[in-house]
Amino acid sequence: MLSTMQDVPLTVTRILDHGTAVHGNSQVITWTGNGAPQRRSFREIGARAAQLAHALRDDLGVEDDERVATFMWNNAEHVEAYFAVPCMGAVLHTLNLRLPAEQLTWIVGHAADRVIIVNGSLLGLLAPLLDRMTTVEHVVVSGPGDRSLLDGGRVRVHDYEELIEGRATAYDWPELDERRAAAMCYTSGTTGDPKGVVYSHRSIYLHSMQVNMAQSMGLTDADLSLVVVPQFHVNAWGLPHATFMTGVGMLMPDRFLQPAPLAEMIESERPTHAAAVPTIWQGLLAELTAKPRDVSSLTQVTIGGSACPPSLMEAFDTLGMRVCHAWGMTETSPLGTVARPPAHALGTPEEFGYRLTQGRFPAGVEARLSGPDGTRLPWDGESAGELEVRGNWIAGAYYGGAGGEAIRPEDKFSPDGWLKTGDVGVISPDGFLTLTDRAKDVIKSGGEWISSVELENALMSHPDVAEAAVVAVPDEKWGERPLATVVLKEDATADYASLQEFLSTRVAKWQLPERWALVPAVPKTSVGKFDKKVLRRQYAEGELDVTRL
Ligand code: ADP
Asked: SUPFAM superfamilies, per this entry (predicted)?
């Protein structure tokens, strides 16, 4: 028998309506770098989103489920696009502005973007590519920048403020099917070609509810969240949607992502929460060590995107910023696990260990581990296998291009539809995930697996080490062995032998790297993760100065 309950569609429009009606006074604060941050209430954002939707439909002819791309920093106008585009029925396509030119042009063509909204400060990056972005007809420029870079080009250029000015501040948003596409994001291609993940209204709605749960980020309207994670990196981990559900304010850094302005905005705007990948926090930590600031408002920091080194968590704890580690992927919206320790561990020596795991699965994410031959492995905290997940906000396929069928590559989806994450780890009996590696980064030495992450974490706990990345390199005897690449802090005195000695008290002897190289910086991907593909290539091409102990 069927239920007797109402069946109201779960849509982004519902989130917008709620945010503007119930939390209309909450604010999006955008850093401007000139001492006067821009402040806009959720109510104003809603009104301007309606104006933008009118402009996109009436002037630019955006219709149905057409993609509208953004090439923007985190700021209020980007939040306006986040709501205007999906609520009018179109699909928001956030472009990763740090991708190489060829990938960007490929992605824009694949998504058939006809309109791009761009920040003026990014025109230097976008303008030279527009001739190759043949699907693009309109560029809408927001904020200061050199508009002459677009002179003589093929596309029609609009000014964001002029385009929306004078339009109705309400929009009769269409009733949408909750399964329709609302937004899309291409994976950043750390381990292969970019692939388009298309989020539905329903998946965004359910994901936002999960982000807001106490065992996830658990923020309320008393909080102000510093959203450092880019809006083009998996929807800024769901924060713009989640905050409109709960009235959490957002502090947006725009283009001011360097450690000094970040420290300055924390001191002056006093956010209570912040979210970013570990490399951002390493930079901030160095800045605060060199020049202490009052960052006492910031008590909760969400770290994800790559493993949080224990040394970073400890250092932040000392500063009174409690780190909450989380794991996710573009394909998982991204919230997959969150490391909130279980009640019985609070205040015990076990607590820190729980916080260092990637975290516990929420009810909306089912997980299983798959062994090398496809066998199911138990959740015993010891059996390591590839993590597979399924759930309401997990991708079941990739975008196949305009008019094309969705793609389900065998190495990404199991025959019964689960997402193969490519991450290798163990799950404890109480549902906490500990990742040891990406499948492609595991070091296979003489039939045993060495975790590159474990070696990196151990190395980064050495007082002289600023950064360390470990990759597998070919070895005649063992098949593969670890190569340790290290960035030393200024004035550091450690040499390879002393680093190896330091490691020997922390990992098994057979795992100790014998190949070492000092590097000026670990190469990073477009979203700030260690780029091990580049390191492996540099090693293969003899570009690294390797010492063998
Ligand atoms: P890309 O795959 O291009 O790097 P994603 O942001 O989708 O882009 O990356 C997802 C991957 O990042 C995960 O599969 C995992 O390998 C890694 N990752 C994310 N969060 C963590 C974490 N907390 N610890 C370790 N690895 C993580």
From this structure: Acetyl-CoA synthetase-like (SSF56801)
> 227 with 275: CB under 8 angstroms?
yes
Taking each helix axis from N to C end, the angle separating 278-290 and 310-318, rounded to the nearest 10 degrees, works out to: 40
> Is this structure's pTM higher than 0.85?
yes
Q: pLDDT at position 189, please? A: 62
Contact 420, 439 (CB under 8 A): no
- Dump pLDDT digits (tens) for 260-304: 999 999 999 999 999 999 999 999 999 999 999 999 999 999 999
Q: Please identify, by atom number, the ligand 1 atom nearest to the C-alpha of residue 435.
A: 25
Smallest CA separation from ligand 1 atom 3, residue: 188
Residues involved in catalysis: 187, 331, 444, 449
Domains and CATH numbers, the chain: 364-440 (2.30.38.10), 443-548 (3.30.300.30)
pLDDT at 190: 58
- Assess contact for 262 and 276: CB atoms under 8 A: no
- The whole-angstrom separation of Cα 271 and Cα 264 is 11
467 strand-pairing partners? 487
Average confidence (pLDDT) over 357-379: 94
Q: Can you say whether residue 378 is alpha, beta or left, with left for phi > 0 and alpha for psi between -120 and 50 degrees? A: beta
What is the rounded distance in angstroms from the CA atom of residue 361 to the CA atom of residue 430? 10
- Ligand 1 atom 6: residue of nearest CA: 329
pLDDT at 390 exceeding the cut of 70 = yes
* Cα 57 from Cα 60, distance rounded (Å): 6
How far, in Å, is the centroid of ligand 1 from the Cα of 328? 6
- Sign of the CA dihedral running 484, 489, 495, 500: negative
Is 355 a pocket residue for ligand 1 (Cβ < 6 Å)?
Answer: no
Tell me the sheet residues that pair with 517: 485, 546
Task: Tell me the C-alpha distance between 454 and 293, whole Å.
Answer: 32
| Tens-digit pLDDT profile for residues 128-160 | 999 999 999 999 999 999 999 999 999 999 999
pLDDT tens, position by position, 434-488: 998 888 888 988 877 888 998 999 999 999 999 999 999 999 888 999 999 999 9
